[in-house]
Amino acid sequence: MVQTLTHIDLTRFRNFEKSAFEIGPDLTLIIGENARGKTSLLESIYTIIYGTGFRETREIELVKWDTDENLIEGFFQDSEHTNLFQVRMQKADTSRVKKMYFVNKTHKTAAQYRTMQSQAVLFAPEQIQIITGSPSRRRRYFDEVLSAVDPTYRKSLRQYETALRTRNKVLENYENELSLVSEIAFWDAFLIEHAAYITTKRKEYTDYLNEHPDINGKHFTTLYRPDVFSEERIAEVRAREYRLRRTVIGPQKDDVTLFLNEPTKKNVSHFGSRSEQRMAIFWLKLNELLYFEKMTHAKPILLLDDIFSELDEHNRKLVMSVIKEYQTIATTTDEDIKDLSQMPEVVIRL
What we know:
By secondary structure, this protein is of the alpha/beta class. It has helices at residues 38-50, 110-116, 129-132, 135-149, 151-173, 177-210, 231-244, 268-271, 274-296, 313-323, 338-341, and strands at residues 4-13, 16-22, 27-31, 69-77, 82-91, 97-103, 106-108, 120-123, 214-215, 218-225, 255-260, 266-267, 301-305, 328-332, 345-349.
């Protein structure tokens, strides 16, 4: 479904008590000094699309600190109608929230809501950790992309993670190997099935990235290194798992390495300059946009969180060339950014 976000209304979302904002069909700039709520506003747009925030904080912090619930409302225009999407969060206890989803005021499950929503691609400076951080950060990135467009992947990943925790509990608490063999066999078969799907889809996405290696005269590729969960590998590590009392193989140990292939092939994470690492992230994000477009037959919304301060003028213009193709909402402290765009725009000042 091709949809354009036209308005976002916030009630007790982070530090916003009650606010409403118009969003332009092309470029919307959110301009203001630091700590004025620019990123929170951008995060609210991410939340109305995905039902979750994007900052490394507890989800309960999306609800204004002195209240018990919030409401995010997004108005999306398709070719015929304006559709109202709502996400309501209620504090369940001191650390959790209960979420409810509505489309045109009709209650939906999270899965139903996502199938009716748009996609969004977030580009923020801290995402350089996808390159420089641990393998778990890269796995999380792949999981976020694939879960956004593949409900089966999202379900399979969730079931794999739940079953893995159960299998680890079985290994941790067994008293004799005879009883362990029969109990763990069920979880092995269950995990093998879901691990195969996860591995297949991660491999497909890395193949897609490698089919689109070029950006701005540079050539990037990825190498996917799956940690296969299969009957053969289980047999290989069985004695080790019994000794350590935990699962030692599986997709939770996968990694992806990014390479810059010119002039010589090098691992961007370990040997790339800061500029090359930033370009690698931009390459990933550009391909994420194209991948979503291919999978959904609709253009995603592009969310840029204060990235211009990280880029020189040449790379700013490169970003601007991409912006022209997508509805874009961008935060910045720089009033001069709008002079680069030469696009119709809405400006929000905080």
